[in-house]
């Protein structure tokens, strides 16, 4: 039985959309009938990731499309999100391809575990530039575009924060503050952009098995310990964020939701002692 398509006619942009959470959201948006633009770094090793995304996107579109169309349903755009001009260029490419921007997911981020006393300025700068400054620049570019739009006006901006915005992490002293910053950014932009009918919300994933923590979670003892702290008894998967991201993107489901934070953590936060 085909699922109802909740994002038909929507144009969605996602940063860091070739891997992990961003990729899962991008494919789910396509499944729900949206047109999707994916930003990626553009590194030499991105080519196989782009090819894999193209394959999976084509399958999703073929399986879920209720109307056959020759129109392009998605694009990929390279660019380093830590640079102020990348967000502007990404939004420009989206509008050139699809005419507008309805949903923007600020997802791109890095997480390299390190002891606090050993963190070098270069690692702190890189983490802040990508996770927080990149989110700011990209969100600002998306907000500017959405503020100009009519028929319908506005849009939805979703920041991928983290449970780490609410709790500390021994080897994440450079990372947790950036995720707290994204939560604050979404709260602040919800106030600033509400007059344009732009909704801004944050998703806070718990421990999600992605390429960012794969090595760390490969430690069986640590993985078992983490699973034991989660009421649902398992680590999260990137697809666990896709449904909440559809909810926040859909005017049918969340038209009066802005400035909110939604934990997607299997209950980990309420079980922390």
Can you put this structure into words, describing what you see?
The chain is α/β, with parallel strands linked by helices and 273 residues long. The chain has a single domain (11-271), classed as NAD(P)-binding Rossmann-like Domain (Rossmann fold, 3-Layer(aba) Sandwich). The chain is 43% helix and 14% strand. It has nine helices and seven strands, in the order βαβαβαβαβαβααααβ. A seven-stranded parallel beta sheet has the order 3-2-1-4-5-6-7, sandwiched between helices. Helix 1 packs parallel to helix 2, helix 1 (20-31) crosses helix 8 and helix 4 packs parallel to helix 5. The termini are far apart. Keywords: NADP, Oxidoreductase, Rhamnose metabolism. It comes from Talaromyces proteolyticus.
